[in-house]
Write a structure and sequence with these properties.
Largest sheet: 6 strands, mixed
Shape: globular
Structural class: alpha/beta
Number of helices: 8
Helix content: 25-40%
Radius of gyration: 17 Å
Strand order of the largest sheet: 6-7-8-3-9-10
Bound molecules: adenosine-5'-diphosphate, magnesium ion
Length: 225
């Protein structure tokens, strides 16, 4: 469970990137976070994995106040959260297998464990046949699937994706969202920031809408379409 209590963020004095956000996300939910460019979507996501700190308010994950986590223990929080970006952020000189293995290599997992988990992640995103390719030799949609596999390989409880379909056409975007649905079916919480209303229309999920840093609607799908 993720809880925001009266959370505000000001990067610049007197300008609210987020303004008094109150929000509860239950374990296993699938959520779209939407709103125009500059509304505060990326900021909200960054606060959840403590890449940015709130100016005011509290953020709890599984009842634990993440404000209180010292820098040295941040890796423990981040182990529970898989992150996917719009621009994939893959290592260009590494194979797809190696890219997906990175989080486990960093943790010092045994080779046999890595192999098992990477293969299961490859299979979940349908890329087993591409495992020995380098990223530039596969399509954009496939590169995003690699990034998703890398995000789930460490068995996180939460996946946070910031505009994961921003560089993809509609057909590929739908494919990516179906993969997120499959991951969600395993009980993993999914939070996707997107400004793509058409995509949101196709997937009946909880929708949280931000406008100029304020949370202006929650659940009310009709209102935003
Ligand atoms: N690092 C930063 N420094 C200063 N202002 C920022 C920074 N990051 C975001 N902002 C500002 O905060 C507001 C919200 O931005 P952001 O969270 O990126 O919105 P979104 O992801 O919805 O486009 C915008 O006005 C943006 O210019
Ligand atoms: Mg953004």
């Amino acid at each position: 469970m993720i809880e925001f209590y009266h959370v505000s963020k000001q990067y610049v004095k007197n300008q609210y990137a987020l303004n008094d956000i109150n929000l509860t996300i239950e374990k296993g939910e699938f959520i779209f976070l939407t709103g125009a460019s500059g509304a505060g979507k990326s900021t909200l996501l960054k606060l959840a994995f403590k890449e940015e700190l709130p100016s005011k308010g509290q953020i709890l994950i599984d009842s634990f106040n993440i404000n209180l986590i010292p820098e040295k223990k941040l890796f423990k929080l981040r182990r529970n959260i898989g992150i996917v970006f719009q621009d994939f952020k893959l290592l260009t000189r590494r194979t797809i297998y190696e890219n997906i293995a990175i989080p486990l290599v960093i943790r010092g997992e045994r080779k046999s464990v890595i192999d098992k988990r990477v293969h299961s992640a490859l299979s979940l995103v349908g890329l087993t046949h591409r495992r020995n390719y380098i990223p530039e030799h596969v399509s954009g949609g496939e590169q995003q699937r690699v990034a998703i596999a890398r995000a789930i390989v460490g068995n996180p409880k939460i996946i946070i994706a910031d505009e994961p379909t921003g560089n993809l056409d509609t057909e590929l975007s739908i494919e990516i969202l179906k993969i997120f649905e499959r991951i969600n079916a395993n009980g993993i919480t999914i939070i996707i920031a997107t400004h793509d209303k058409n995509l949101i229309k196709m997937f009946p999920k909880r929708v949280i809408r931000l406008e100029k840093g304020r949370l202006i609607s929650d659940w009310s799908k009709e209102e935003i379409l």
